[in-house]
Design brief:
It is found in: Cytoplasm. The protein is mainly alpha-helical. It has three helices and no strands.
Length: 86
């Protein structure tokens, strides 16, 4: 899966799960300010992305530094690369 495909999958999953407007979902869109997600949504987001990508994300301290869709997609790409290497 390419970086672009990961980003598009993140957009698709979050748009569906949280009924977000895809036009507002740019790489630089803030998950919390621009897209309006809150802390409870963040928990749901982690769960749905874990299922989608087959990754364990919830225990990662790094996930707390994710603010934009681009950050989120890059984090998933990095996790997938680590999973493949392991």
């Amino acid at each position: 899966m390419t970086d672009k495909e990961v980003f598009q999958t993140v957009v698709d999953v979050l748009a569906e799960e949280f009924e977000l407007n895809r036009e507002e979902m740019t790489p630089e869109a803030s998950l919390y300010e621009e897209l309006g997600l809150d802390s409870l949504d963040a928990v749901d987001m982690v769960i749905v992305l874990e299922k989608t990508f087959g990754l364990k994300l919830a225990d990662e301290k790094e996930i707390r530094s994710i603010w934009t869709l681009k950050d989120l997609a890059e984090f998933i790409v990095k996790k997938k690369a680590g999973q493949t290497a392991a």
